[in-house]
Structure formats: C-alpha cells, structure tokens
C-alpha cells in the first residue's frame, strides 16, 4: 500500500532514487509523461517502472509497444538483463502490439471511437492479469502531415482520459521530442493530460564528460521543485536516479535552460 500524500494514495515507482525525490511515488490511477529526444532512455525508464513494480511491489503491468514488434521488444529487453518471456509466464507482465495501421484507421474513422475501442481491449487484459500498471510506448505513432497531427491530438486526449476513468491503472506514456524543436512533447497535448512530466536528456559537463539526465518538469499535487537529476542505466535494474546535478551543464539534447 502506498503512502497518502495530500489525500491521494501513491504507489512507489520502483525506479531507484526517484521515489524519495518526488515524495513517495506516483498517484494511483494517474498518467505520467516521459519525454525526450531519441536515445535518451525513455523506453528503459518506462520499462523499469513496469518490471520493478511487478517484482518489488506485486503490481503486474501491461506494456503496449506501438512502434516495435514483439520480437524486437523482447530482444531489446534481454540485452538489459530482463527475460520478458519468463515475466509473462509468471503473470507479472503482458505485452501488447497494436495493429500497425492505426494511423490509417484513425484517419478513416472517428478518433474517439478508435481510442475507446483500444481502451476496451486494454481493459480485458488488465482484468485478466489484475494489472495495476500500464505503459504505452509511445503514446501514438509518428506522423508528419498536419491533418494527421490534429487527429492524433484528439485520439491521445480521449485515450488518456478514458484509461484513467475506465481502467484505473497507474500509467506511463512516452513521446519523442523532435530534435532541435525545444518542445516538451511531439503533439503538444501530452503534457497537459499528464499528472507528471519527466524530460530525459543528455548533457555535457565542463570537463567534456557526458551525463544522462532527467528533468522533473511537472509533478501535480506533489511538493517537488523542478530540477535536473543525473541518471544511470544499470543492467537487470534499469534506470537509477542519482543526485541532483549542481554543476553547469551544456545540453546535447533538448533540456530547459540550465
């Protein structure tokens, strides 16, 4: 059972070093955004939340892989010491891969209907697994046409709100920031729907060393001050949040002004 903070029940994230930083964990039933440019450990952070939540806290989880095949996902996790097949066999996690033509289907139909249909499918797996956690990585496929972006914004809005209202899992969604854009998310709506926003990045120190970092941009209903924290990737453990960065940094990927 998580702690109660400001009358909201929290659950530990399972990400080493993060819970003490954000006041105990995530608010149950809410959605958190992990954003960043390519190669900034978004997927690993989300997967750490899912796997450690199951192993440490007995909260099974569902991972929805939007832009990788099942085989690619399993192999990627294996390289970091996680046996997805074994975790599935133990009933700790489930992996779902939506149909690859989701953008075409959203174009042809009402995005609200598509989102609600996906939520209904997710709910069935949540009930079967008694899942408490959900990861959607990324929240929507990458598109370039303006008309597709507008449609996907509505799809994302309905999807996130419906998951919170109808399923009740604690969720992480990821989104990729276009390189050099200075945006917080790809579609400009994800950060408003999320209870917390974490921007992953890479920065360089004065002596020329590179650091992986996490900027805590937003934590609604939690006494957290925005700050930049160094992270480390540890095999079989995942992402570990280290201390707050005090030294001057030069951003390599997008980060707020340092």
From TrEMBL:
Keywords: ATP-binding, Nucleotide-binding. The keyword Hydrolase does not apply. Gene3D superfamilies: P-loop containing nucleotide triphosphate hydrolases. Residues 9-258 form the KaiC domain. GO terms for molecular function: ATP binding. InterPro entries: KaiC-like_dom, KaiC_dom, P-loop_NTPase. It comes from the Archaea. The keyword Cell membrane does not apply. This is Circadian clock protein, KaiC. It comes from Pyrobaculum islandicum (strain DSM 4184 / JCM 9189 / GEO3).
